[in-house]
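hey can u run this one w/ flavin-adenine dinucleotide bound, need the structure tokens asap thx
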Amino acid sequence: MSAERFDLAVLGAGPGGYVAAIRAAQLGRRVAVVERERPGGVCLNWGCIPSKALLQGAELVESIRSHGETFGVTATGVTLDYAKAIDHSRKVADRLCKGVESLLRKHAITLFPGSGRLASPTALEVLGPEPKRIEAEHVILATGSGELVPAGVPADPQRILTSREALESRVIPPRLVVIGAGAVGIEFAYVYAMYGSQVTVIEMADQMLPGADPDVAQALQREFRRKKIEVRLGTRFEEIKTANGTVRVQVRKGEEGGELEAEQVLLAIGRRPLSRELGLEAAGVALDPRGFAVVDARLRTSVPTISAIGDLAGPPLLAHKASEEGVHCVEGLAGIARPPLDHYKIPACIYAQPQVAWIGRTEAQARAEYGDDLLVGKFPFTASGKAVATAHTAGFVKLLAEPRYREIVGAHIVGAGATELVAEIALAMTLEATTAEIAGTSHAHPTLAEAILEAALAAEGRSINF
Ligand SMILES: Cc1cc2nc3c(=O)[nH]c(=O)nc-3n(C[C@H](O)[C@H](O)[C@H](O)COP(=O)(O)OP(=O)(O)OC[C@H]3O[C@@H](n4cnc5c(N)ncnc54)[C@H](O)[C@@H]3O)c2cc1C
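ok here u go:
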């Protein structure tokens, strides 16, 4: 096996790994990346990007069906060809993955195709067409995560899908059961429902989006009900069986059992870190009980020459978190001083309609910290000129501010554009902005962003438009 020497070796070219590699190259490091599929990771190939392409189609269907009449657009003879939407999403994924390949070339980063594992705390071995040993001063592990499939679920990828199969499946089943009302389950439930499937979502927690602010979860559930997407909370699945072209899901809510029948089931119960068979234990890299790499504030593992970033380093499992950790880790290695990453300042977004986005503390968390003096400002989109004009009145903006300086400590948004609006709050939180500063910032009229201004005014007790 031939060997080559680099300053930095990165295992995995998802949004964590490829971004870390580029930042290291910008800092003058000689960088190798090992990737067993296409650069871009789950995000570009099988996650964020293709799912958003499908969601765009679903939104278009809903616009024609639900809002067309309002604007005098009567669409007759509309046909839906979901296979074309899948083709589009695959093309988009392809295009963006090629973009990452060309970025790696542009930064003179050497890409080694193949499966990699640690050979020592300062070396990777690549099992590919040409086996290779890569030696480096430092190694970054960025192998991401895979779909979680509970034991006992039959292997039947035509009928029992994870997000991976769903992103290639060209048919819309008459009936779909989605197991799990987290981001992935909600987005697919919306896509399939808009393309004509009768969708039932089951979730074992007592709210959709477990962990989210309950106001947001309830608003989303109300809108799903309006769209005739059934959501069963506090319901766990016990068994899945396939027979005669259908899938039967045994469910239980408290003492009560039941059965759901559908042509397909989508498992969206979470993800597991890809930390096995990487030689981590032999190298001494500590893992937590769920298999995520244990890292410090600088993303170093228990082995000083090895860092871990992205999904492998634990929740939140988000692409932008992976990329931020990549930059943070590499800059730390280069001696650039940065404050530690604050997970509370990482926005979480769901791109179904209505969209959901949040950042910072939930109201309950903020109340536990600041008591009854917490400032809460809420503004519903029914009172927003832009939302009314565009017929997107579902949802609200809720801002939370601590009582001393009135600095923003959380924001929870449901509604059209929520995933774009949350960026303003992320910047506000980075700059430690207060409700007064947001209220004193000119927001163009009419825009959905005015709802943030109005929520800030509401927190200050001086609402104008509500
Ligand atoms: C359906 C879906 C939708 C999503 N939508 C969003 C969204 O809208 N926004 C968002 O922020 N996040 C979203 N996510 C989550 C997001 O995709 C992940 O958080 C992100 O991809 C994690 O980046 P990463 O670099 O840590 O890992 P990954 O993107 O998983 O990349 C890891 C890479 O490592 C490679 N690899 C693994 N093991 C080896 C090995 N032994 N040798 C060589 N290569 C290896 C893999 O092939 C992969 O390319 C979504 C996920 C799914 C499944």
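The longest strand covers residues 2-11. anyway lmk if its weird
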